[in-house]
Amino acid sequence: MTDAPSFQAYWCFDDYTDLDADEAPCVRAPADGDWSAFTPLLEENDDDMGSVVLTRGDDIVRIDDSLIATVQNLCLGAIPDLVDRNHVVVPYFMLYGYVRMDPEPPDQLVLGDEIATARFPRAELIPALVAIGRSYLEYLHTCRGDDSDYDDVRVGVSARLAEAEAALDRWDGT
Amino acid sequence: MVVGATSDPAEREADEAARVIIARLRADGSAPLSTPAPGRIQRSGFTDPVSGAGVHGRIQPVAATMARRQVIRRAFVNGTAAKDAPLFEKIAPVDAAIQLGGDSDAAKFGITATNMKHYLERHTFKYQRLNSKTIKPAAGMFPQGTTVDNVKAWLVEALSKLPETSTIGESAVSTSVTLSNGLKVNLGALKGGKLSAFFPIEGGSHTGYHKYSADELKAIRDAKNAGNGT
Question: Structural domains in chain A?
Fold first, then answer.
């Protein structure tokens, strides 16, 4: 008997410092609060293009878009509906299409335009999405704190994070 | 479902891609849902072409065939990356910022700035740079021959058609309007009142609209770098 593959969720930030690269590397958000690797990337990526990545075993869902939109609308804005076991449809921002999330307790089906289809355990997925929101807000304060263009983003992410955490508080975890 | 023979190179290519997938699944019926499909197949719309509706862990030949039909409508303009490469001129976007300060249609939505460089280098054949910043994610393209002045005019028209209740200047959710030429465009602001996104999302064949996946744009970039369409 083998262990079930573990679920992981994280976000990463596109590195456009080498425009001749085959593909822009996506630099993973740090878990230890050291954002120094992001500093040289900020100027060339002021729309915060990047990915939210959900994985379990061979299943990989990679949502590529502006993180400003993905974090606010999907990682945080969708949480109250996910907790209530409602279907969620979230539009992309920098391209036309949608990501859909259907409750299939104990799993959550994730599918949509430009991504693979996969099922992830709700008990792990939902808190992980909120954790991404929390991490992104830390990034906004640490890396974009001096940029007034991001004032409304910080306000928006903070407000949605509060709503998402309130939803988590009333959730029974199923 | 029987897939008939065709003389269309693009359709033959799509047929072959579908056959490869189906053959692989017949040989190994346990392909996981997340198995990456070839780029052209993978981005065939809302229904996952690999998994098939409601079927976990298996590729269904019928679903793959249906996906192939969808892909044909959205694939390369001229059938292959090499043939599309000459459509891209890779001209550096000019400094074409639009001054919107006095434009009441923009101001009433809280839009204070545009990003014309981005609209041009992501969504026009003439200015798409085909570099690591512009080939991802998927991109809806304005018609071939689109100029800077066209984009400016369409943006002004789009702003004039937004409903009074639109919140595009305040929310990271884009909204869409249809232009008088039939192109449906998305527009939206991410931060600081700057209109980050303005691109076409739909249009009949008469509009010249086309959508490329990231994989297709990469293939065109590679073909261009290999000397095609220089």
Answer: 7-169 (3.30.2450)
